[in-house]
Amino acid sequence: MLRLGGAHRRSVSRFAPAIILAGAAILFAARGAMWIALAFGAAAVALYAWSTRAFIAEPKRERARAQSSAPPKRGYTMSDAQARAILGVPPGASEADIRSAYRRKMARAHPDLGGSTEEAAKLSAARDALLRK
Prior knowledge:
The protein is 73% helix and 0% strand. It has two domains: 7-68; 80-131, Orthogonal Bundle (Helix Hairpins). The mean pLDDT is 78. By secondary structure, it is mainly alpha-helical.
């Protein structure tokens, strides 16, 4: 058997019901039950089409969400007011306060923990902008 992990496992598991129905259709066709085989085959095609539609729609949603909150470009200069608003720190915040706010917000925004790369990039840019002063 082939061992799949991560994104491959998710993509194959979406098509698993269609694959099982197609296998059943082949078995019924081999035994001579053509009408049952056709019914299972039609169900497999319908499930595959539905799974493909869902599989294509999800990346489109992800792209739309990523474009709506694009990360700061390299060389982008963020104002202190923007950086303070992103991190939620007052104007006279110390370095320790800035680092603490960054860690607290990054715990929710980190891509490995369910957040997005755009949020993490904004938080990092805000921290860098405030700590450069």
